[in-house]
Amino acid sequence: VLTPSPIPRRPAFEGCAPTSIELAPRANGAILLLVREGDLPALLPTLRNFEHRFNARFKYPYVFLSAPDEPPFSPHFRASIADAVHPGALLEFGQVPEEHWRIPEWLDEDEIRAGFLRQAGEGVQYGGREGYHHMCRFYSGLFARHELLQKYEWYWRLEPGVRFYCSVTYDPFRFLAQRNQTYGFVITLIDDLNTIPSLYKTVKQYVQEAGLTPTDMWDFFTRDKNGASGYNRCHFWTNFEIGHLPFFRSQPYQQLFTALDRSGGFYTERWGDAPIRTIALGLLEGTDKVHYFEDFAYRHDWFMHCPERKEMGCDCDCPAFDTDHVDIDGQSWGSCVPEWKDISSVQWRE
Ligand code: GDP
Ligand code: MN
């Protein structure tokens, strides 16, 4: 039985021509990227694609952040980016502050670095890369405190190498804003267990200590799946995400982040920002605040999502599924779309 909902699954389809929405005021949003100088070759085609599919029309500003253990972006890097995006684009280049990119003082550095070697030996993905641990910690909570983001209300996270295969003809920031929503995703799947052995236990302890009552979304990632109980490891993939910054800057979110950070799991294990994000939304926000951009066509590495029915997207040129373009929604890859459809109040009608 389908439950009707006031939140439509996607905007009313207005055709692929520029819609009236583009004449409306823009949201206070920015495109956010944390990258390395060396990412440039993968970054440029992604920016050209993103501009072609969305931003040449909507003209949102960009914020590029580098890590403080690398030199600031070179003039060549900046000029190459300016060349890849629409003329006159507002480009801001900044750095993550030093204190947000190091093993925190409450942990023993030598012990932690020995732990990275152990993680690498145990096959924990990226477990041996210190920078990756910092990146996950940064995106889990510290990013929302970055000075370049303070003037913005929304961010859309982008990564070198990703592709969009349909045009986005409406403004997804405003789409979320008009529905009073907090967060949007395209891909949801299960995480590797060996990156987060103690995450769920730590979260449950925090829930108890803080006296919190999880929202209706809790069931999304705690129902049994493939024999997994407790945290079933369903999460929104954060390499694409659109988020409402006031939520991520809010006291409840930052307090949860700080508690998790204090426990050390970003370093003693290899907690990703994606499970943290998802669990936080399930604890503090709820299903109605999260939107599945099912009409977007998106690929990260070899995982791809394309709208099930062609008329959902605009001018799509999704490649055929093959070994480099794996259908993430196919069940063998651990997609959590079935769980999401089941749990969300959105009306799913074929
Ligand atoms: P994956 O998507 O989890 O496989 O990881 P990626 O290698 O794509 O990294 C995710 C994002 O963080 C990308 O935008 C990277 O450029 C960025 N990133 C990862 N590690 C580092 C790092 O050590 N320094 C900087 N500056 N960025 C990083
Ligand atoms: Mn990536």
From TrEMBL:
GO molecular function: alpha-1,2-mannosyltransferase activity
Highest taxon in the source lineage: Eukaryota
Gene Ontology terms describing biological process: cell wall mannoprotein biosynthetic process; protein N-linked glycosylation
Record keyword Endoplasmic reticulum present: no
GO cellular component: Golgi apparatus; membrane
Entry keyword annotation includes Transmembrane helix: yes
Keywords per UniProt: Membrane, Transferase, Transmembrane, Transmembrane helix
Record family assignment: Belongs to the glycosyltransferase 15 family.
Protein name, per record: Nucleotide-diphospho-sugar transferase
Organism listed in the record: Dacryopinax primogenitus (strain DJM 731)
Segment of the intact protein contained: 55 to 404 of 437
